[in-house]
Amino acid sequence: MRSQVNEIDAVTVEVEVQVPWDRVKQGLDASYGKLQKQVRVRGFRPGKTPRSVLTKLYGPQVNHEVISTLVEEGLLEAVQEHSLAIVATPEVRSLPSIERDKPLSFTAKLEIRPKVDGVVVDGLEVSRPSSAVADAEVDAELERLRIQHAEIVTPDEPRPAALGDLLTVDYTVEVDGEEKAEMAAQGRTVELGSGRLVPAFEEGLLGAKVDDEVTIRVAYDDDAPNEDLKNRRALFRVKITELRSRLLPDLDDEFAQDLGEHETLDALRAATRAKLEEAAKGRADSAVREQLVEQLVDKNPVPVPPSLVDQQEQGMRRELAFLAQIAGPGFDLGASGELRDRAEKKVRAALLMGEIARREGLTIEPEEIDAQLAKIAEASGKHIAKVRVEYAGEKRDSLANKLLEDKLLDFLLGRATVTDAPPRSETDAGESDE
Q1: CB-based contacts of 341: which residues, under 8 Å, 6+ apart?
Q2: What whole-number distance in Å separates Cα of residue 389 and Cα of residue 395?
Q3: Which of 46, 97, 182, 304 has a CA between 20 and 30 Å from the CA of residue 60?
Q4: Distance (Å) of CA 433 to CA 92, 269, 282, 380, 428
């Protein structure tokens, strides 16, 4: 076969392939020979049906199969011959037809991985957030523990729903006047003031009582996490079937003892601060890494294949839709209008990191994976053999990719200038917690 590659842009090429007639004829002969052994035609003994008869009966089918096979083989050979790093299924503009004694010619468009000649990693400057924990943050965490260990009670006297209440609701949903049975729910629990509900949905429930039926209208925009709700109006008919509230325990030594780990409130407060400081350090490390990737992408505006961005965006949308399905239509997942830009940055970062790994010879050896599995086994209390079984196949590959990503980020961190941000004030911490 002969092939020629014409570059359309940095991530797209056009491939022209020409399959010689003798190879086309070979494919036809093989297909008809196989067909002759398999089919039975009245008036002819098995395996003795003339080729001319088979051509009349099965000609279009055989031609289609031979063409499809030769197009697939031709593209594969062209990709291998020209070392094309394709990232999506080739787009054949139109299937060719077979003409006797003439080559089979066709053209296909392919998306390829862009060539990254060099990656700029110098001049990265990042700021590490402070991991200091303010007193207000410790107080907020202790309050969260009180809420977590509160007694859920039903008020003695019926009263209107207020912030902090847990409501059990049944609801139906209409979208632009059309009832959506799949969005309806019964016995769903929602918490007022949790920050998880669409504001209009929460406002419609505040002040309602048990057995009340309220109608709530929500106008969604392009940032709605559920595709079925984008730029549409939803009407929720909600019935409150139960109202409960939390009876918070006193914050004292007895509360600390009830948690089972500390004898005094002071000991609980100290342990809470240590836990928050560890978490703050982890967030600071993550923030530094995010800044490194962001700057790497900004300094290296390499083109990205649209199909890879599509795949990344679809995966992110599936995650959002899954969360929305679990939480229900009243759940606010925030804006998703920048999802395409985020997906493009993720793809570009992956291309750049891959080139850095290749250039610097960064790899993950089997013993490094085994060492990480040993850490997982120790942390989980499981036997190492069981952990190895759990992390077989794709899960082991994912772990290797994560370890390589960590190694790449450590490499970038070693080339970057890192400054420490000043600690947050008590006022800032309190406003953040609120």
Answers
A1: none
A2: 10
A3: 46
A4: 56, 17, 18, 31, 9
| pLDDT tens column, 394-433 | 999 999 999 999 999 999 999 999 999 887 665 555 554 4
| pLDDT tens digits, one per residue of 241-270 | 999 999 999 999 999 999 888 999 999 999
State the residue range of the domain holding 308: 125-130+277-433
For residues 66 and 72, give the distance between their C-alpha atoms in angstroms, rounded to a whole number.
10
Nearest to 66 by CA among 18, 32, 27, 37: 27
Q: Which long-range contacts (CB under 8 A, 24 or more apart) does 257-266 make?
A: 258/149, 259/145, 259/149
For residues 60 and 190, state if they share a domain: no
What six digits make up the tokens of 326? 């679990």
* Amino acid at site 96: P
- Does the pTM surpass 0.85? The reply is no
Tokens for 403?
């370890």
Looking at the fold, whether 243 and 322 belong to one and the same domain comes out as no
The two three-digit tokens of residue 320, written as one number: 């959002």
Structure tokens at 249: 């325990």
